[in-house]
Write a structure and sequence with these properties.
- The protein contains 16 helices and 14 strands.
- The protein is an alpha+beta fold.
């Protein structure tokens, strides 16, 4: 062995270990730097996103102070003569509109609870500020000394109503088009009749206020349909771009009965006493199950009405408990119709490119994808009844909630009918293909009639009064389109 050999070998091993340590440190340093950079970048993204979400939430956060400022600004505009309405004087001068609370803000929409002349109402506007609405263009070219005649107002309002509802003139005038045509009068023409009931011309403030209301699809739907249907909320009045609708008991997804039935139980008792006198049944109350059956019958009535009583079928594309309410006589009322469309507009919405049926779903309204054309059918394949059976009736009549009564023959029959209803397709497409006769469209009508019969028999078995939850007969304040 050469002198110094062992020393040399030890130095090599020591040098190798140092080199490995150096490389490991280098790799750890690079990895640590990368991890640190990623953590820093992730934290920066998270904090900025948090700030952005926080700002967006706060900017549309429902507060009493902000709601009161919005109404104060509206009254300031009324004082300046910019807006008007049949509710303005009560709100801004006489103090007959009492602010209660802010209900919610959503995508600019403001919803406020108040009391008008002692009665609860809901104030709504799609946008916060009156200036956010498009002005009526004709006013920009009009001589300030001139005023539009009622006929001029009818013309411009009719155009705006048709545009909002997605109806062309030829669509409205079709006899028996779309949904069966129980009432074939032009919706815009019905609106026109309201506006013509006035001899003098309209001021600029009246026209500007009307125009801001007509740009809100929900207001237009409610105003036009409330004279044709008991199943939509009543518009009671307006001031500028805000309108008041009746206060109703809305549904709740967390309530097994969907609606709070305690409030209507006393009303039902009073109604029975007034109609039947002091008999034994009049002294009792509707049971919760009887009220559910009555409400279900009213849902069926609403579906049939929306399917058949207008020139075009009315599609409900957002069916959930929160979008419906009940009056004290248990009539079901649609209170949020932002996602309700007549047949022509429904076809425009569904007619889009697709690669599968999943691309043809628009909330609760769906059609089929034609894979050859890569295009969705413009006709809806499901129905209002099918979705209501799936989302409303199935939770109501499930064996879990019925308990010991679930095994009774009529309850079992009802559960089977609801199940069949939720699985039966039968939209406009099937109806046209079947020529209005049998097939799946006939199945839908059959299921509807079957549900109607079973629910009626259940009410009779329970000894309930045969008077169902019918039309609302309130005789309070009546609001017309321009009853300023």
């Amino acid at each position: 062995m050469l002198p110094g050999g062992p020393v040399s070998g030890g130095g090599g091993r020591g040098g190798g270990l140092c080199l490995l340590r150096w490389l490991g440190l280098k790799l750890w340093s690079r990895r640590g730097t990368l991890v640190f950079a990623l953590l820093w970048f992730g934290s920066w993204l998270f904090l900025n996103g948090l700030v952005l979400v926080h700002r967006s939430i706060l900017s549309d956060y429902c507060t009493d102070d902000k709601s009161k400022r919005i109404l104060q600004r509206l009254c300031l505009e009324f004082g300046e003569g910019s807006v008007t309405g049949d509710m303005c004087e009560d709100l801004c001068v006489l103090g007959l509109v009492e602010y209660k609370r802010c209900l919610y803000y959503e995508n600019g929409k403001k919803v406020i609870e108040a009391r008008w002349r002692g009665k609860p109402v809901i104030l709504k506007s799609k946008l916060e500020n009156f200036s956010s609405y498009e002005p009526l263009g004709i006013l920009d070219y009009q001589d300030p000394a001139d005023e539009l005649s009622p006929l001029d107002v009818v013309f411009y309002a009719t155009l705006e109503v048709r545009n909002s509802l997605g109806l062309a003139e030829e669509d409205e005038d079709e006899e028996g088009g779309g949904g069966g045509g129980g009432n074939n009068s032009s919706l815009a023409r019905l609106w026109g009749k309201k506006l013509k009931n006035r001899d003098k011309s309209y001021s600029k403030a009246e026209l500007a206020s009307l125009w801001s209301l007509l740009q809100q699809e929900e207001y237009t739907f409610l105003r036009v349909l409330q004279d044709l249907s008991t199943h939509v909320a009543k518009v009671l009045g307006s001031c500028g771009h805000f309108y008041a609708v009746e206060f109703l008991s809305a549904g709740h997804a967390w309530d097994q009965n969907i609606f709070s039935l305690e409030d209507v139980a006393v009303s039902g008792l009073q109604g029975q006493q007034s109609r039947a006198g002091p008999g034994p049944r009049a002294r009792g109350r509707w049971t919760a199950r009887e009220m559910v059956h009555r409400i279900a019958l009213s849902f069926l009535d609403m579906v049939w009405h929306f399917d058949n009583d207008f020139t075009h079928k009315l599609h409900l594309c957002d069916i959930k408990p929160e979008n419906f309410a009940i009056r004290k006589d248990l009539t079901v009322v649609a209170i949020d119709v932002d996602m309700a469309f007549f047949e022509p507009k429904m076809r425009d919405i569904l007619d889009q490119n697709c690669s599968s049926d999943d691309d043809c779903n628009f909330f609760d309204c769906s059609s089929r994808c034609n894979l050859n054309k890569r295009r969705c059918s413009p006709r809806r394949r499901n129905s209002n009844l099918q979705v209501i059976c799936e989302k409303i009736f199935r939770p109501w009549f499930s064996p879990t909630l019925l308990g010991a009564k679930a095994g009774l023959p009529l309850q079992v029959e009802l559960q089977r009918a609801v199940q069949e209803c939720s699985e039966t397709e039968g939209g406009v497409e099937q109806r046209e293909e079947d020529g209005g006769g049998g097939g799946e469209a006939g199945q839908v009508r059959g299921v509807h009639q079957r549900l109607l019969n079973i629910l009626t028999r259940l009410l009779q078995e329970g000894g309930a009064s045969r008077e169902g939850g019918g039309a609302w007969e309130g005789k309070g304040h009546v609001h017309t389109a321009l009853n300023f």
